[in-house]
């Protein structure tokens, strides 16, 4: 196998993983949209700092187990959580 063929195979795998990540994020956001609607309907706040802290701690532990930088995983999750909260706040505004 040539270096170019190996690089192509690596890139195909990366492309497949990226596609899976996008679909997983789409599924996650479908569920968080339902949570946002539920919160708005029941007058619950858009953010739940206790839950967020638990999730971040949990994913940091998982990252360590997976040999992924826990700082990176926390930044990634924080970005996702902030986006979800923004959506939830918008839903409550009408």
Automatic annotation (TrEMBL):
| Keyword Isomerase in record | yes
Which keywords does this chain's UniProt record carry?
Isomerase
Keyword Cell membrane assigned to the entry: answer is no
Which GO MF terms are attached to this record?
chorismate mutase activity
Identify the InterPro entries for this entry.
Chorismate_II_sf (IPR036263), Chorismate_mutase-related (IPR051331), CM_bact (IPR010951), CM_dom_sf (IPR036979), CM_II_prokaryot (IPR002701)
- Per UniProt, residues of the Chorismate mutase domain are 1-92
Per the record, the domain of life is Bacteria
Task: Write down the Pfam families for this protein, in alphabetical order.
Answer: CM_2
- Enzyme Commission number(s) of this protein: 5.4.99.5
Q: Which GO terms describe its biological process?
A: chorismate metabolic process; salicylic acid biosynthetic process
Q: What is this protein called?
A: chorismate mutase
Tell me what organism the protein belongs to: Sphingomonas changnyeongensis
């Amino acid at each position: 196998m040539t270096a170019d063929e190996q690089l192509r195979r690596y890139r195909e795998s990366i492309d497949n993983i990226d596609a899976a990540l996008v679909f997983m994020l789409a599924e996650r956001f479908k569920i968080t949209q339902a949570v946002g609607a539920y919160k708005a309907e029941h007058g619950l706040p858009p953010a739940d700092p206790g839950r967020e802290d638990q999730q971040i701690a949990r994913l940091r532990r998982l990252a360590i187990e997976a040999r992924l930088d826990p700082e990176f995983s926390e930044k990634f999750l924080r970005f996702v959580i902030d986006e979800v909260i923004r959506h939830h706040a918008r839903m409550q505004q009408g």
